[in-house]
Every structure is written in structure tokens, then in C-alpha cells.
């Protein structure tokens, strides 16, 4: 298959691209080993560049490749028309999350630009990561991701949206497995796969029943979400990187909040732009190595 040169990801001519690629800042990798992270990444200027099923499917395909190549541990995911959600755990192995995000986002952009004969950025430069405590907060974040397309009014139940982890948890695959159900069961303190399926479905159905599927910005615009103790511990571990950030109460949770960013789009409130704090700029100097694999 013909792969468009990496320059096609940008608007700059080839020579200009080569001259400036090394000047791009390296990713600020705040990841703490052993933490669960909720990652969000949106398309450039909120454009609906993932509106076609084939492009959403290709993002999922490259997520599988990231799992296969780097050992990314996926707990849940959601691909919408203009942004993605990804729930993963960092096992502390050689920048797995950063490498995986570079591969998935880079390949998805290349293939789209090649097919559409398009030049320019496909993604916003920055993706955002929120640390999630491993308890009931993980449960709520898991369901929050499932409910994404329900919040936008596109579907009435997560099972109706093909490009998410809900159906894979409910009907585990034999091939091309993305979600690490055994790790998810361990984190949720569930012993059997049938128990995971039943419990997960009950959580979603309860959320639908009480009509609690509104956008909660804390899950995608915070540095960390959890108990007061967890958030304080996370803030101490991050040190100067979150200096000046306050710990606040948000409903039954505590979180380290960031500067709020205007979030306006024609789709729905869910498609908000993540703030720039605790966000990660791609290291394009490393992408060329990943894309040749």
C-alpha cells in the first residue's frame, strides 16, 4: 500500500518541514507508572474528520497495532466523528502510551490525507490525559466513555454505536482483541467474565434509567480525579508540573483542575477542547521511526 510522505500531515512544503521538524518540542510525559489514564484527542479545529465509518475503523485498527507492537493495555475506548476517548493503564514500560498515541494518530492522519488528497493537520497537536483513581471513580469514568454518543443524541444506547468498547466488553472477541478484560476484571475486583458483563451492563442501564448522561468536564479537563487522598498524592508526585493548581470538590469527587478553555462546537458539548495543561505535544521527531514499522 502506498503511504503518503509524512509531510502530508502538515501544511508546510517538504523542505520547510525538514528544516523545522527538529525544532518541535518534545512530549511532556507526566505519566505515573501504575496509573489509569483517560485520554482524549480531538480533530483539528473540531472538524468532523472521523465522520466516515472507514476512518473510525482505521483508528481502531491502529489501536490494535499499538497494543500488538507496544503492549498498550486498553480498558475502554470511543471513536466519535471529531474526537476519541481512550482508557488505558500505564504499566511503566518504555513510554508505551506516548508511542501508541503517536502511532495511532499518525497512521490515521496519513491514510485519511492520502485518500482525500488533503494536506494539513488532522489532529490538534495536543492530547489530554486525566489520572483516574482505581475504585468507583474508574467505574464512573468507564461508563462515562460508554455514554458519549448517547450524550450527543446520536444513539439511545451505547450498544448502538459500533466504534466503542461497550460491545467488546459485552461480547468478547476471539480475534483482534482490543480490551484487556482480565486486567479490567482485576481493576474492578470482578472474578468472572460473565460477572464483568452483567455488572458493566447494569452500570450503563442504571445511568440511562436515572438520565444521568450529561457532560462532566472533570473527566477530560482535569489532571486527576478521585478521592481527596488520591488527588493529593498525585499532585505531590507531579510536583512542579502542577504547581499552583488547586484541588477542588466536584460532586462526590476531588480533582486537580486546570484552566478552563472555551468549548463550543456544533455537535454537542461533549466535543469540548481539552485544556493545554497536562496535555502532551506529539514528538514528530520520533513519529518517522514509528511509521516505518
Explain this structure to me?
The N terminus and C terminus are likely disordered. The radius of gyration is 19 Å and the shape is globular. It has 293 residues and is an alpha+beta fold. Strands 1, 2, 3, 4, 5, 6, 7 and 8 form an eight-stranded mixed β-sheet that branches. Helices cover 37% and strands 15% of the residues. The longest helix has 21 residues. The protein starts with 13 loop residues before the first helix and ends with a helix. Strand 6 and strand 7 form a beta hairpin. The chain has ten helices and eight strands.
Key descriptive features of the protein:
10 helices; 293 residues; globular; 8 strands; 37% helix; eight-stranded mixed β-sheet; alpha+beta
At a glance:
This protein has about 290 residues and is an alpha+beta fold. About 35% of the residues lie in helices and about 15% in strands.
Question: Share of helix among residues?
Answer: 25-40%
Q: Could you describe the largest sheet, including whether it forms a barrel?
A: 8 strands, mixed
Q: How many helices does DSSP assign?
A: 10
Instruction: Give, in order, the helices and strands.
Output: HEHEEHEHHHHHEHEEEH
- Poorly predicted spans: 1-29, 260-277, 282-293
Number of strands: 8
Amino acid at each position: 500500500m502506498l503511504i503518503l510522505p509524512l509531510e502530508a500531515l502538515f501544511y508546510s512544503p517538504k523542505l520547510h518541514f525538514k528544516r523545522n521538524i527538529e525544532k518541535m518540542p518534545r512530549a511532556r510525559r507526566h505519566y505515573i507508572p501504575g496509573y489509569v489514564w483517560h485520554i482524549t484527542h480531538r480533530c483539528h479545529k473540531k472538524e468532523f474528520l472521523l465522520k466516515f465509518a472507514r476512518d473510525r475503523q482505521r483508528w481502531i485498527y491502529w489501536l490494535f497495532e499499538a497494543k500488538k507492537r507496544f503492549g498498550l493495555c486498553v480498558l475502554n475506548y470511543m471513536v466519535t466523528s471529531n474526537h476519541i476517548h481512550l482508557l488505558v493503564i500505564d504499566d511503566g514500560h518504555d513510554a508505551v502510551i506516548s508511542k501508541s498515541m503517536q502511532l495511532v494518530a499518525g497512521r490515521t492522519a496519513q491514510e485519511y490525507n492520502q485518500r482525500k488528497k488533503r494536506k494539513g493537520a488532522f489532529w490538534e497537536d495536543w492530547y489530554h490525559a486525566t489520572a483516574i483513581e482505581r475504585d468507583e471513580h474508574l467505574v464512573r469514568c468507564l461508563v462515562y466513555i460508554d455514554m458519549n454518543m448517547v450524550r450527543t443524541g446520536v444513539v439511545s444506547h451505547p450498544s448502538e454505536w459500533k466504534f466503542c468498547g461497550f460491545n467488546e466488553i459485552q461480547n468478547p472477541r476471539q480475534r483482534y482483541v482490543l480490551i484487556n478484560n482480565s486486567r479490567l476484571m482485576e481493576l474492578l475486583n470482578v472474578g468472572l467474565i460473565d460477572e464483568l458483563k452483567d455488572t458493566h451492563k447494569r452500570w450503563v442501564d442504571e445511568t440511562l434509567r436515572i438520565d444521568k448522561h450529561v457532560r462532566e468536564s472533570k473527566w477530560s479537563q482535569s489532571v486527576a480525579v478521585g478521592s481527596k487522598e488520591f488527588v493529593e498524592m498525585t499532585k505531590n508526585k507531579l510536583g512542579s508540573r502542577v504547581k499552583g493548581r488547586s484541588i477542588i470538590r466536584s460532586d462526590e469527587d476531588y480533582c486537580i483542575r486546570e484552566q478552563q478553555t472555551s468549548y463550543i462546537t456544533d455537535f454537542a458539548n461533549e466535543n469540548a477542547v481539552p485544556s493545554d495543561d497536562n496535555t502532551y505535544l506529539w514528538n514528530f521527531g520520533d513519529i518517522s521511526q514509528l511509521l516505518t514499522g
